[in-house]
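User: Here's a protein and a ligand (thymidine-5'-diphosphate). What would the complex look like?
Assistant: Let me lay out the input and then the predicted complex.
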Amino acid sequence: MIDSCKLVDLPKIPDARGNLTFVEADRHVPFSIKRIYYLYDVPGGAARGGHAHRELQQLMISMSGSFDVTLDDGRRRRRIHLNRSYLGLYICPMIWREIDNFSSGAVCMVVASHFYDENDYFRDYNMFLKEAVYEG
Ligand code: TYD
């Protein structure tokens, strides 16, 4: 499961006036893009995430600064440092994630496969674990 989460090298168009990167649905992410949201003005020491999704697929990009993402499929954990605007972290369904170690000015943008739906969340780790281990 956790092996399905991958770093995606996004196109980078270098330019003396500033670089340009883009994300295309069904090409750079294996889904149609329904929603984009971003975390910003994160105070030092704060952590986000702390949940998993039943169906949602996401691509997470550090638009500015850096942060760490810990992925957990109920069996294994991986910690990934995101600090490049041309690198996306694809997160498949049924992955518990924690995001921390935000640098000052960090912006975490997430491209998502579905609209926001609270029913899609696992917010209790033990409930997630039960389902993840049962499914696996
Ligand atoms: P949550 O997904 O728990 O944030 P994070 O994982 O980044 O810590 O969302 C925090 C709050 O924002 C929660 O009340 C739901 C709301 N929210 C929306 O209304 N729409 C969205 O697209 C997202 C991601 C969150």
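Summary: The chain has a mean pLDDT of 97.
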